[in-house]
């Protein structure tokens, strides 16, 4: 997945940027940020979908407990599932081994079918959220279905493939302190095809992400660096 993510960054991501440059040529300096934001939303949607699956699978520990969960308990179950994908506690009820095998089988099934899964519901959620975020501060952007279908489906597919790993791979796009171990710097005037640049700025604060970093949640290892623009760019 690390190599696939790298290829996706230089391939599908840049194709999406070129698509927006075609439809919105006046916004070339912000199109790459919009593409990154779209992927961030897709990953958030995929994470919620996986959390919902995990919440239902947790009931296998004790099938009769499902109807007794209160809303706050459901929220806590969802949090635990997200932080510890497909890990199974040894303190479970009768049938633990059978339930564990079922959960592992579901996990394997989701990974095996991740290339074929229908992401239409995700795509609709991503487009709705994207339009909601952009309508107030970017009047020049009118992202309709005709435009979005050129890149949102592949973004949703990649986000889903990251989410179904065991444990789920994570993307980082919220850390605003520049770290050379986690970030490559993109300069508007000195870009190669991928948008990467080794040119450094004396200001270590990040202005915004052009593509998230890929993180292994088990040990915090940076699998692929993110691409960022610094505050003084």
Automatic annotation (TrEMBL):
Subcellular localization is given as: Cytoplasm; Mitochondrion matrix; Mitochondrion outer membrane
Asked whether the UniProt record includes tRNA-binding among its keywords, one would answer no
One GO BP annotation is: mitochondrial protein catabolic process
Listed Pfam families = MIEAP (PF16026)
**Is the keyword Membrane in the record?**
yes
Mitochondria-eating protein C-terminal domain location is 3-228
This entry carries the following GO cellular component terms, namely:
mitochondrial matrix; mitochondrial outer membrane
Task: Return one GO MF term.
Answer: lipid binding
Q: Which InterPro entries match?
A: MIEAP (IPR026169), MIEAP_C (IPR031981)
Ordered alphabetically, the record's keywords are: Coiled coil, Cytoplasm, Lipid-binding, Membrane, Mitochondrion, Mitochondrion outer membrane
PANTHER family attached here? MITOCHONDRIA-EATING PROTEIN (PTHR21771:SF1), MITOCHONDRIA-EATING PROTEIN-RELATED (PTHR21771)
By sequence similarity, the record places it as follows: Belongs to the MIEAP family.
- Any idea what this protein is called? Mitochondria-eating protein
Originating organism: Branchiostoma lanceolatum (Common lancelet)
Primary gene name: Hypp1727
